[in-house]
Amino acid sequence: MAALGRATGLASALASALAFVVGGWTGAAAEERPAPGAGFFDAAAVDDPAFGRCAWMGRSPPFVFQENDYIRGYFEPTNLAAYQQALPRPFGMPARPLIRIGFLDFYDMASGPTYLETEVAILGMDGTQPGWVVLTLPVTNGPACIGGRDLFGLAKVMRRISFVRAADRYTGTLYARGAEKVDFTLTVTVGEPGAAGRELLRQNGVYPQFGLLNGKVLRFGGSGTPLSELAARGDFQIKLGTARLDVSPDPTSLVNRLGVGAPLVGHWSRIRAKYSIKPL
Predict the structure, then answer these.
(1) pLDDT (average), residues 208-214
(2) Is 34 exposed, middle or buried (0-12, 13-18, 19+ CB in 10 A)?
(3) Per-residue confidence at 99, pLDDT binned at 50, 70, 90?
(4) What CA–CA distance (Å, rounded) separates 239 from 274?
(5) Contact 176, 248 (CB under 8 A)
(6) Three-state SS sequence of 15-64
(7) CA proximity to 155, closest of 94, 89, 84, 213
Protein backbone atom coordinates (compact mmCIF):
# COMPACT_ATOMS: atom_id res chain seq x y z
CA MET A 1 0.00 0.00 0.00
CA ALA A 2 2.43 2.65 -1.15
CA ALA A 3 5.07 3.44 1.46
CA LEU A 4 2.81 3.36 4.48
CA GLY A 5 4.60 0.68 6.47
CA ARG A 6 3.46 -2.63 7.87
CA ALA A 7 0.15 -3.18 9.49
CA THR A 8 0.58 -3.45 13.24
CA GLY A 9 -1.35 -4.87 16.18
CA LEU A 10 -4.75 -6.17 15.21
CA ALA A 11 -4.28 -5.34 11.54
CA SER A 12 -1.14 -7.47 11.37
CA ALA A 13 -2.90 -10.36 13.05
CA LEU A 14 -5.73 -10.11 10.54
CA ALA A 15 -3.73 -9.36 7.42
CA SER A 16 -4.32 -12.77 5.88
CA ALA A 17 -8.03 -11.98 5.79
CA LEU A 18 -7.53 -9.02 3.49
CA ALA A 19 -6.68 -7.98 -0.05
CA PHE A 20 -3.16 -6.95 -0.95
CA VAL A 21 -2.96 -4.07 -3.43
CA VAL A 22 -0.79 -1.03 -4.02
CA GLY A 23 -1.76 2.41 -5.24
CA GLY A 24 0.28 5.01 -7.07
CA TRP A 25 2.84 2.64 -8.63
CA THR A 26 3.57 2.84 -12.33
CA GLY A 27 4.19 -0.90 -12.62
CA ALA A 28 6.00 -2.97 -15.22
CA ALA A 29 4.94 -3.36 -18.79
CA ALA A 30 2.30 -6.05 -19.25
CA GLU A 31 4.73 -8.38 -20.99
CA GLU A 32 7.12 -8.14 -18.00
CA ARG A 33 4.60 -9.18 -15.39
CA PRO A 34 5.25 -12.66 -14.00
CA ALA A 35 2.62 -15.33 -14.38
CA PRO A 36 0.90 -15.88 -11.01
CA GLY A 37 2.35 -19.19 -10.01
CA ALA A 38 3.22 -22.16 -12.17
CA GLY A 39 0.52 -24.44 -10.85
CA PHE A 40 -3.20 -24.81 -11.34
CA PHE A 41 -4.48 -21.24 -11.18
CA ASP A 42 -7.11 -19.20 -12.98
CA ALA A 43 -5.61 -18.98 -16.46
CA ALA A 44 -8.66 -17.17 -17.86
CA ALA A 45 -8.31 -13.74 -19.46
CA VAL A 46 -7.45 -11.09 -16.89
CA ASP A 47 -9.78 -8.38 -18.21
CA ASP A 48 -13.54 -8.67 -18.56
CA PRO A 49 -14.72 -6.57 -21.53
CA ALA A 50 -18.22 -6.50 -20.04
CA PHE A 51 -16.99 -5.29 -16.67
CA GLY A 52 -13.56 -3.65 -16.65
CA ARG A 53 -9.81 -3.73 -17.19
CA CYS A 54 -7.09 -4.93 -14.82
CA ALA A 55 -5.06 -1.71 -15.03
CA TRP A 56 -3.87 1.29 -13.04
CA MET A 57 -5.96 3.71 -15.14
CA GLY A 58 -3.88 6.70 -14.13
CA ARG A 59 -2.33 7.41 -10.76
CA SER A 60 -4.16 5.55 -7.99
CA PRO A 61 -4.37 6.73 -4.39
CA PRO A 62 -2.70 4.59 -1.73
CA PHE A 63 -4.90 1.79 -0.39
CA VAL A 64 -5.53 2.30 3.32
CA PHE A 65 -8.15 -0.05 4.75
CA GLN A 66 -10.52 1.01 7.49
CA GLU A 67 -13.42 -1.44 7.72
CA ASN A 68 -14.54 -4.51 5.81
CA ASP A 69 -16.52 -7.68 6.29
CA TYR A 70 -16.20 -11.07 4.63
CA ILE A 71 -17.39 -14.66 4.55
CA ARG A 72 -15.31 -17.81 4.19
CA GLY A 73 -16.09 -21.46 3.76
CA TYR A 74 -13.72 -24.39 4.22
CA PHE A 75 -14.17 -27.53 2.12
CA GLU A 76 -12.76 -31.01 1.65
CA PRO A 77 -11.03 -31.58 -1.71
CA THR A 78 -12.33 -34.43 -3.86
CA ASN A 79 -9.46 -34.64 -6.35
CA LEU A 80 -6.06 -34.86 -4.66
CA ALA A 81 -4.28 -35.18 -8.00
CA ALA A 82 -5.73 -31.83 -9.09
CA TYR A 83 -4.95 -30.38 -5.66
CA GLN A 84 -1.29 -31.40 -5.94
CA GLN A 85 -1.15 -30.05 -9.48
CA ALA A 86 -2.54 -26.76 -8.20
CA LEU A 87 0.44 -26.18 -5.89
CA PRO A 88 3.16 -24.31 -7.76
CA ARG A 89 6.76 -24.85 -6.72
CA PRO A 90 8.05 -24.50 -4.03
CA PHE A 91 4.83 -25.31 -2.15
CA GLY A 92 4.21 -28.82 -0.88
CA MET A 93 1.17 -30.83 0.20
CA PRO A 94 -0.08 -30.28 3.76
CA ALA A 95 -0.91 -33.10 6.16
CA ARG A 96 -4.60 -32.29 5.65
CA PRO A 97 -5.47 -30.67 2.31
CA LEU A 98 -8.18 -28.00 2.54
CA ILE A 99 -9.90 -25.62 0.15
CA ARG A 100 -10.89 -22.12 1.29
CA ILE A 101 -13.37 -19.94 -0.60
CA GLY A 102 -14.24 -16.41 0.46
CA PHE A 103 -15.96 -13.15 -0.47
CA LEU A 104 -14.69 -9.84 0.91
CA ASP A 105 -16.31 -6.41 0.81
CA PHE A 106 -13.94 -3.46 1.34
CA TYR A 107 -16.75 -0.96 1.77
CA ASP A 108 -15.02 1.63 4.00
CA MET A 109 -11.59 2.79 2.87
CA ALA A 110 -9.54 5.53 4.53
CA SER A 111 -7.83 5.97 1.15
CA GLY A 112 -8.45 4.29 -2.18
CA PRO A 113 -11.57 2.92 -3.89
CA THR A 114 -14.04 0.50 -2.36
CA TYR A 115 -14.27 -2.91 -4.03
CA LEU A 116 -15.31 -6.55 -3.73
CA GLU A 117 -13.05 -9.59 -3.91
CA THR A 118 -13.46 -13.35 -4.25
CA GLU A 119 -10.81 -15.83 -3.10
CA VAL A 120 -10.17 -19.47 -3.99
CA ALA A 121 -7.17 -20.83 -2.09
CA ILE A 122 -5.76 -24.16 -1.00
CA LEU A 123 -3.65 -25.03 2.00
CA GLY A 124 0.01 -25.64 1.15
CA MET A 125 3.41 -25.83 2.83
CA ASP A 126 6.31 -23.42 2.42
CA GLY A 127 8.92 -25.60 4.07
CA THR A 128 7.46 -26.21 7.53
CA GLN A 129 5.08 -23.23 7.38
CA PRO A 130 1.47 -23.95 6.36
CA GLY A 131 -0.41 -21.22 4.56
CA TRP A 132 -3.03 -20.43 1.92
CA VAL A 133 -1.89 -20.60 -1.71
CA VAL A 134 -4.11 -18.34 -3.81
CA LEU A 135 -5.41 -19.86 -7.03
CA THR A 136 -7.58 -16.93 -8.09
CA LEU A 137 -8.59 -13.54 -6.66
CA PRO A 138 -11.29 -11.91 -8.80
CA VAL A 139 -11.87 -8.23 -7.89
CA THR A 140 -14.12 -5.40 -9.04
CA ASN A 141 -11.50 -2.65 -9.25
CA GLY A 142 -8.77 -2.23 -11.88
CA PRO A 143 -5.96 -0.82 -9.68
CA ALA A 144 -6.66 -3.44 -6.99
CA CYS A 145 -6.37 -6.09 -9.70
CA ILE A 146 -3.12 -4.94 -11.30
CA GLY A 147 -1.51 -4.13 -7.94
CA GLY A 148 -2.05 -7.66 -6.70
CA ARG A 149 -0.62 -9.15 -9.90
CA ASP A 150 2.37 -6.85 -10.37
CA LEU A 151 3.56 -6.53 -6.80
CA PHE A 152 2.46 -9.69 -5.02
CA GLY A 153 2.21 -12.38 -7.72
CA LEU A 154 -1.46 -12.98 -6.92
CA ALA A 155 -3.79 -14.33 -9.62
CA LYS A 156 -6.15 -11.37 -9.68
CA VAL A 157 -8.65 -10.93 -12.50
CA MET A 158 -11.51 -8.52 -13.16
CA ARG A 159 -14.96 -10.00 -12.63
CA ARG A 160 -18.44 -8.98 -11.50
CA ILE A 161 -19.08 -9.92 -7.84
CA SER A 162 -22.05 -9.44 -5.53
CA PHE A 163 -22.29 -9.71 -1.75
CA VAL A 164 -25.69 -9.85 -0.04
CA ARG A 165 -26.39 -9.69 3.70
CA ALA A 166 -29.58 -10.95 5.33
CA ALA A 167 -30.58 -12.03 8.82
CA ASP A 168 -28.08 -14.74 9.79
CA ARG A 169 -27.22 -15.44 6.16
CA TYR A 170 -24.54 -14.01 3.89
CA THR A 171 -24.23 -14.76 0.18
CA GLY A 172 -21.43 -14.01 -2.25
CA THR A 173 -21.72 -14.60 -5.99
CA LEU A 174 -18.94 -14.62 -8.57
CA TYR A 175 -19.90 -14.16 -12.22
CA ALA A 176 -18.00 -15.70 -15.11
CA ARG A 177 -16.29 -13.53 -17.71
CA GLY A 178 -19.01 -11.61 -19.50
CA ALA A 179 -20.64 -10.57 -16.18
CA GLU A 180 -23.91 -12.43 -16.80
CA LYS A 181 -23.52 -16.15 -16.00
CA VAL A 182 -22.90 -17.21 -12.41
CA ASP A 183 -19.64 -19.06 -11.80
CA PHE A 184 -20.35 -20.00 -8.18
CA THR A 185 -22.18 -18.82 -5.07
CA LEU A 186 -21.03 -19.19 -1.46
CA THR A 187 -23.64 -19.00 1.30
CA VAL A 188 -22.73 -18.86 4.99
CA THR A 189 -25.60 -19.43 7.41
CA VAL A 190 -24.93 -18.44 11.01
CA GLY A 191 -25.32 -21.30 13.47
CA GLU A 192 -23.43 -23.82 15.54
CA PRO A 193 -20.89 -25.57 13.25
CA GLY A 194 -20.11 -28.36 15.71
CA ALA A 195 -16.94 -29.19 17.60
CA ALA A 196 -15.10 -30.47 14.52
CA GLY A 197 -15.81 -27.26 12.61
CA ARG A 198 -14.70 -25.08 15.50
CA GLU A 199 -11.46 -27.03 15.86
CA LEU A 200 -10.72 -26.87 12.13
CA LEU A 201 -11.16 -23.11 12.15
CA ARG A 202 -9.01 -22.76 15.26
CA GLN A 203 -6.18 -24.68 13.64
CA ASN A 204 -6.36 -23.24 10.12
CA GLY A 205 -8.15 -19.89 10.30
CA VAL A 206 -5.15 -17.61 10.78
CA TYR A 207 -2.38 -19.17 8.70
CA PRO A 208 -0.65 -16.67 6.40
CA GLN A 209 -1.63 -16.17 2.81
CA PHE A 210 1.11 -16.84 0.24
CA GLY A 211 1.96 -14.91 -2.90
CA LEU A 212 4.57 -15.97 -5.46
CA LEU A 213 6.47 -13.24 -7.28
CA ASN A 214 9.36 -14.11 -9.61
CA GLY A 215 9.74 -17.40 -7.77
CA LYS A 216 9.91 -15.68 -4.36
CA VAL A 217 7.35 -16.62 -1.73
CA LEU A 218 5.65 -13.64 -0.08
CA ARG A 219 3.72 -14.04 3.17
CA PHE A 220 0.83 -11.89 4.32
CA GLY A 221 -0.42 -11.95 7.89
CA GLY A 222 -0.66 -15.11 9.89
CA SER A 223 -0.02 -14.21 13.52
CA GLY A 224 -1.32 -17.56 14.74
CA THR A 225 -3.72 -15.81 17.14
CA PRO A 226 -7.00 -17.76 17.32
CA LEU A 227 -9.99 -15.92 15.85
CA SER A 228 -11.79 -16.22 19.18
CA GLU A 229 -9.00 -14.25 20.85
CA LEU A 230 -9.05 -11.61 18.13
CA ALA A 231 -12.80 -11.19 18.65
CA ALA A 232 -12.22 -10.46 22.33
CA ARG A 233 -10.26 -7.32 21.39
CA GLY A 234 -13.32 -5.54 20.05
CA ASP A 235 -12.09 -4.53 16.58
CA PHE A 236 -12.89 -7.93 15.12
CA GLN A 237 -16.25 -9.69 15.03
CA ILE A 238 -16.97 -13.25 13.98
CA LYS A 239 -20.08 -15.40 13.60
CA LEU A 240 -19.54 -19.10 12.99
CA GLY A 241 -21.82 -21.16 10.84
CA THR A 242 -22.17 -23.56 7.96
CA ALA A 243 -21.12 -23.08 4.35
CA ARG A 244 -22.72 -24.11 1.07
CA LEU A 245 -21.18 -23.81 -2.38
CA ASP A 246 -23.32 -23.82 -5.52
CA VAL A 247 -21.31 -24.13 -8.72
CA SER A 248 -22.29 -23.74 -12.37
CA PRO A 249 -22.06 -26.92 -14.47
CA ASP A 250 -19.36 -25.33 -16.65
CA PRO A 251 -16.48 -27.86 -16.69
CA THR A 252 -13.95 -25.07 -17.28
CA SER A 253 -14.80 -23.39 -13.97
CA LEU A 254 -11.75 -23.48 -11.70
CA VAL A 255 -13.70 -24.84 -8.72
CA ASN A 256 -15.07 -27.68 -10.88
CA ARG A 257 -11.60 -28.57 -12.13
CA LEU A 258 -10.20 -28.40 -8.61
CA GLY A 259 -12.87 -30.63 -7.10
CA VAL A 260 -14.57 -28.95 -4.13
CA GLY A 261 -16.23 -31.44 -1.81
CA ALA A 262 -18.09 -31.45 1.49
CA PRO A 263 -18.33 -28.19 3.48
CA LEU A 264 -16.60 -28.25 6.87
CA VAL A 265 -17.22 -24.86 8.48
CA GLY A 266 -18.00 -21.27 7.54
CA HIS A 267 -17.92 -17.87 9.15
CA TRP A 268 -18.74 -14.19 8.70
CA SER A 269 -16.30 -11.63 10.08
CA ARG A 270 -15.95 -7.86 10.31
CA ILE A 271 -12.71 -5.94 10.83
CA ARG A 272 -12.48 -2.33 12.00
CA ALA A 273 -8.86 -1.15 11.92
CA LYS A 274 -6.92 1.35 9.83
CA TYR A 275 -3.86 -0.16 8.17
CA SER A 276 -1.97 -0.74 4.97
CA ILE A 277 -0.22 -3.99 4.09
CA LYS A 278 3.25 -5.05 3.01
CA PRO A 279 4.34 -8.64 2.50
CA LEU A 280 6.66 -10.28 5.03
Answers:
(1) 87
(2) middle
(3) very high
(4) 22
(5) yes
(6) HHHCCCCCCCCCCCCHHHCCCCCCCCCCCCCCCECCCECCCCCCCCCCCE
(7) 213
